[in-house]
## 1
Amino acid sequence: MKKFLTVLGAMLILTMSFSYAQEQAGQLFGTVTDEEKASLPGVTIEGTSPKLMGTVTAVTDEMGRFRLRNLRPGTYTIVFTLPGFATLRREGIVVALGRTYYLNVSLNPAVIEEEITVVGESPMVDIKASGTTLEISKEMFNKLPKGRDFTTVVTFASGVNDEIELTGSSGTGLSMDGATSSENTFFVDGVNTTNLFTGDTAQQVVF
């Protein structure tokens, strides 16, 4: 019985550690095919980012599938290589905290060795989460009317509105999709900064 409890405790610790690791990172799954949509096994995938100390790698299986796990939140460059095919680079891929993304790519045969670079937004779909996302470029940010903290900017997102503070207490006073401010959760650089008593953010981000 004592041995069983010890094993059960170890399994619980491993499960909690795995769940914590998932919350602290993102994942990128996908498939690689040729121009005729046939699966390509043996493709080497390398991911790099300023957030990483090195490179994350994977190799496609017999179905052309790959997985890049435990990706720190940030912007990535993903490189796909296979002898006989042109190298493909996907730049500017943004991975968010705790999100799972799915990416399909196609490699073209290389008569003469060449490298193809794709710059811009990646047509990826978050397959495990739904919600509203607001991305503001530097140029747009400089043109927007705003105050001294982020709460004056997030109201530009769909479904986000100012909420009247009936209690007179300080806070963000943000209503999202009809919910009250006490139902909000705030994260700053991946850290939960929500005030447990008011539901407001305990850490203001000033401009």
Note: The chain has two domains: 22-126, 138-192.
## 2
Amino acid sequence: MATVENTGSAESVPETGGTVTDFPIDHTSPRVVLDQAAAQRLEAYDKRQSELRKTLVLVCVIVGVMTLLMALSLTNPQIYLIEPETLKLINQGLNAFIILTIPFLLGILGACARLLISGVRVVQELPLAIGSGLLAAFSWVGIKSGVFISILAPHLEKQGFQPADVVRGPDSFYTMVLVAVFVGMFATNLYLFVNNRVEQLTKAEKAKASAD
């Protein structure tokens, strides 16, 4: 067995019958680079084809559903008749949505006031203000539904207040406005307190870890 000495390294390459049987593959050769590029293009092509098939299936499903609904509409036109009870529910829902915009805005106002008092930029904590407004709107729902009043009724009766007078009194609107503002301020204050406490504990842990 003859060996071919490689001048660039100390390794020897065995040769049998004048043919190299073990030679390292040069990954930087043009042929290997072209093969890798072709494999990448093939993979990208397969990915595009898969996405195209998914899109085609989705379009077919949508077209099938629309065709089925159209066929049902043509054969059964009475399915689109709205019952009076449904119209009543839609009307109540629309009215409730319009009414709840008032405590929502008032809750945002209370949250912004609390942020300004704390010296925090309102723009940075805008999601917090919106969340506080939603809590204020939920508080209105709880009061108007009578859930909160039923919980507080025993305590109010001991103080000489009638639960119905709290909501239906002549000044009940201003009471509800005050509730919405206070809920917005309280929610924001609670978040700021918890966030500040967490930051203090995190800094204390980091200082303790660096000291060790």
Note: The mean pLDDT is 80.
## 3
Amino acid sequence: MAVRRGTAARQMQQQMPDPMEQMMESDEPTRKRPWEKVDAEGNKIKRKKVPGAKNIRIRKHVQPKNALSCLNELVPGVVYNTEQEGGVGQQFGVSVTVEGKTFRGFGSSKQIARQNAAEAAIISFVKPPVPKAVPGEESKMEDKTPWATLASFAMYKLFNDWKDGRIGTCHTQTPAFPGVSPQNLQGYFNQMVGGPQTMTASPPNAASSNAISQYLGTPAAGVIKSAESAKNANTPAVAKPAKQVPDNASAMHPVMVLHQMRPGIQYNTNKTTGEENRPYFYVSVNIDGQEFTGEGPNLKKAKFNLARDAIYALFGVESCFELPA
């Protein structure tokens, strides 16, 4: 019996393949993938990096677009309704309904009002961040915020700011709003969409406000301290004036130079009707005990003329900056 068992064991060992032999047999050249290139010796040829290729791809997908174009991408064929005709002392009012919610914009022209209404609607597309997945598990939630569209609109606004000479944070160009909480952020955005004279009937959207706040993250310590001080004092937080006039002040936008040197100034604005019932603006401001005035067919031009005279009288800066037509 022992002899038979030994013989059977030897036969089983002979029938079982050797692992090393299996590895040697399987060590055959792998099949080349269709997109791979090899040299004469069969070595893989690595693809050369094309300088600027990544930048070209980004530029292809992210182009500056205004609010109307961006909203049309998100909601093709959206319809704008004129709710208020403009005229003397009254702005145009336009509304747009998206996903059952109505957003309104106002402006000195119907086109501006439509742009403002579209921007108010775009804000509603910002959704809360997707929660991080548990380690080892895939997240089943989809990020529904249209980042490419928002990036296109952000570039459009940024380039327009640069074109108009608004460079840097420029917090001093508009009065601070103490007590603006994340819950009121949507209303704050809607109020500022069309500039200081904008009215809005669109109710604040707490969901969008909270989503935006989550993406912005925790403000820097200095920002928190400044906001708390402004809230406690119930007065706008004013930036410190620059210690000296910028070296390139003559080439900068006069309004920007003026606000850097004298932050927190408040303009007095008066709107009248000129020739052919066209609006005409007068602005004035008292700086260091001196009264400065400016006028123009729009508020931007009036402030430009005022600031140009003010920086020359106060700081000896003769501006050569020209407003875009």
Note: The first strand starts at residue 80 and ends at 84.
